Amino acid sequence: MVPADRHRLTNLSLGRKLLASAALLLGLGLFFGGWIVSVELTRWDTSATALFQWGERLEILRLRRPQIFWTLFLGHAASLALVGVVSGVLLRRVALARGARKALIGGLVILGVLDLACWVLLRHWGTAHTLLGGAIVLEAALLLYVALHPLRDMWIFRRWKGTGGPPIRVAIVGGGFAGLYTALHLDRRLGYHRDLQISVIDRRNYFLFPPLLPSVAAGSIETRQVTYPFRRIFEAANVAFKKENVDRIDLDTKTIRARVDVDDDPVTGEAQVIWCETQYDILVLAPGSDTNTFNTPGVKEHAFFMRELGDAIAVRNHIIDNFERAARETDGDRRREQLTFVVVGAGPTGVELAAEVRDLIDHILMSRYPELDPAEVTVYIIQAGEQILPGWHKTVVGSASDRLRKLKVELRLGRRVVNVTPFAVTLDDGTKIATRTCVWCAGVKPSPLLSACNLPLHRSGRVEIGDDLRVKGRDDVFVLGDAAFLLHDGAPLPPLGQVAFQQGQHAAKNIDLLIRKQPTRPFKYFNFGALVSVGDKFAAIDLFGVRMSGFIAWWVWRTLYLAKLVGFGNKVRVVLDWTLDLIVERSISQIAADRQDFSGNKFADNTPLAARPRPQEPAPDGMSAPAPQDVPKQHAPAPQHAPTA
Length: 645
What we know:
Elements: H1 14-41, H2 48-51, H3 54-64, H4 66-91, H5 98-120, H6 127-155, E1 168-173, H7 177-190, E2 196-202, E3 206-208, H8 213-218, E4 227-229, H9 230-233, E5 239-243, E6 245-250, E7 255-264, E8 271-279, E9 282-285, E10 289-291, H10 299-302, E11 304-305, H11 309-328, H12 332-338, E12 340-344, H13 348-368, E13 378-383, H14 394-406, E14 409-413, E15 417-421, E16 424-427, E17 432-434, E18 437-440, E19 444-446, E20 463-464, E21 470-471, E22 474-479, E23 484-485, E24 487-488, E25 491-492, H15 497-515, E26 529-533, E27 539-543, E28 546-550, H16 551-564, H17 568-583
Parallel strand pairs: 1-2, 1-9, 2-5, 9-22, 11-18, 12-13, 12-18, 13-14, 20-23
Antiparallel strand pairs: 3-4, 6-7, 7-8, 10-19, 15-16, 16-17, 21-22, 24-25, 26-27, 27-28
């Protein structure tokens, strides 16, 4: 299927381009020319303050020279109509999101009507003097944008011209930071061509912003704010999205085999699937990673995770549920068990989650459960290493550690968890912490999809790649993000978001060069630094060698995360959530998620079939195989695996 063209202005004929450009430039000339003439006629200065007093000067001009005033008015109205109509037509061919296009056209119409109404009512409406100055400044900025954006798309663009041969198909498996940035930057570099097909395959239909999951778990941000639908992201790009669960990739035939959940069988209730195959010429493999339990007994059965939206919702519901139960519990030991929360792993996610949970308890829950004793509430962080935030600078680690202690978070450093049950967490020194809540944030491991692709794997389980991000010996396969093993300054690049999006941008550049038959370039990683939020209005950061902690660092943390959040609507909602959280108490209502699957597919186990162990052979002589051990679960865990695709 030929993809839809999202860059249609580049395809206009030369005559139409010249006509549209002349109309836009004429309209802008009339608009700003009339402004300059009115300034000169009233001998008015052009300071910033005077700009907002333009209505008063026009009133003077109307009284002294009414003919010139109305001539300027007609020219002004003509300029608005000309730019508005032409840009409105051209914006439909610009690669803009539907919401942004509506906002631009709607804003231009509202400001234009207000502007012309103020001109007409200057004599009868005193407020028009004040409104006109502000309206004209906003209108000028908006007119420049709606006129110059189409002009840029018509005349200043860089796009692939095609090869004259068969279509080039670029398939991106995984819609995390690496996959998303690859798709968007590749579209930006190549533009539209009927012989270019870019597709993104993921088992979820939305992009997830994992750094804010601890905030979702504590209720300071609502669930939808950390997700953004792929189909909305790509609506202004020449990228096709496929919601599929990749099972295996055949590198020899260049085929991606994936399953699609179609419906539930009305009789058995089992999910019905169809199998799809996607052919590719260039493959970008960015399936992310999975939770690493280090084969610790009981973790998969009884621990919560913090990798999916469903995980954050499950943790939030479970914390509130424990408080509800503890409020009715008469046995002191069981009550303390219900009010003890254990976070395993002191990386950024574990630290932020423990701090957010402590804030939720101290600032919200304790005031709503007066029958509970605050002394019975305990939050632990268990860390196998000798410090929290392993690998971070000691200054940042010290600030974060001090803050956690002030928040009354118990740090157990140099200790490993050896067993997890529904009612306790056991450490390697024999210590048993009675708890109903264990959240596992202890590490990641490569996606199981990698083992089903017949790629050269490092002993870490990740795919070894070259400096240009391609698999050694496979010029048509790029591996990015958590799935890739690449040395930088003698050490492998860590599985971090900033590594993933930098690799995504560079992969797009190299794919562009590869398509144009030019040599690829080596990837150079730039470490921007690290930052972690440690409770309310406190963060510790290490950015570009600048280390600080406290309120300013917390403001920087929020600003940077907000900048990286996908979707303008999400940015606005998060700002509103953060603002309301300062003045309005957050909700402690539990979110019913019994029949919802926030992972994006209905399969409980997202491991590709090709990577799964063979089923147990039937017992001989008609003997029945032993039934699996019935392990009690304290909750129905949310999907535990990162997306395989």
